[in-house]
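so my prof wants the structure for this chain in the tokens format not the other one, which i didnt know existed until like an hour ago. anyway here's the sequence
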Amino acid sequence: MTAKAQDTGAAGDDETRRDFLLLTTGVVGAAGAALSAWPFIDSMNPAADVLALSTTEVDLSPVEAGQSITVVWRGKPVFIRHRSEQEITAARAVDLSTLRDPVPDEDREIKPQWLVVVGICPHLGCIPLGQKPGQPRGEWGGWFCPCHGSQFDTSGRIRKGPSPTNLVVPPYQFTEDTSIRIG
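here's what i got, hopefully its the right format
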């Protein structure tokens, strides 16, 4: 072999070695960046306590007609009212053209006797009264927000006051005749 051929061979080995070292360094650097970023990325996942609150199971069997209970779902109060026949009839007899946020009663419940709403006034986030016996329920027998005077009917619809919308109906489903899962 000539000297020129030996130089080319050595240069070829150097280039191959350099390419290998660059590739290896790049792979190790990328793996190190991924491993150091993982705790930050993992911290963006919801905490276990938040995941545990994503759904709430409620047994409705002890709630009698005319009674209400409050449960917590995602840190918010949820009002569940076992409506009487009179409350259902009154809620369905409303002329929708008189409502600020016109939604039929039938679209706000799955079973007519059970109304499930988030117990936070859409105006400024207050918690309306009307869950306990003796608390003011407003002119329409639903809920009354004492902060600014919003009044809701037995379907959770705004009837009077500054609230722009009805009480929110959370996603829920019946798992049995007297048991629901909220969320």
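also thought this was worth mentioning. Residues 50-182 form a domain with the Rieske Iron-sulfur Protein fold (CATH 2.102.10.10).
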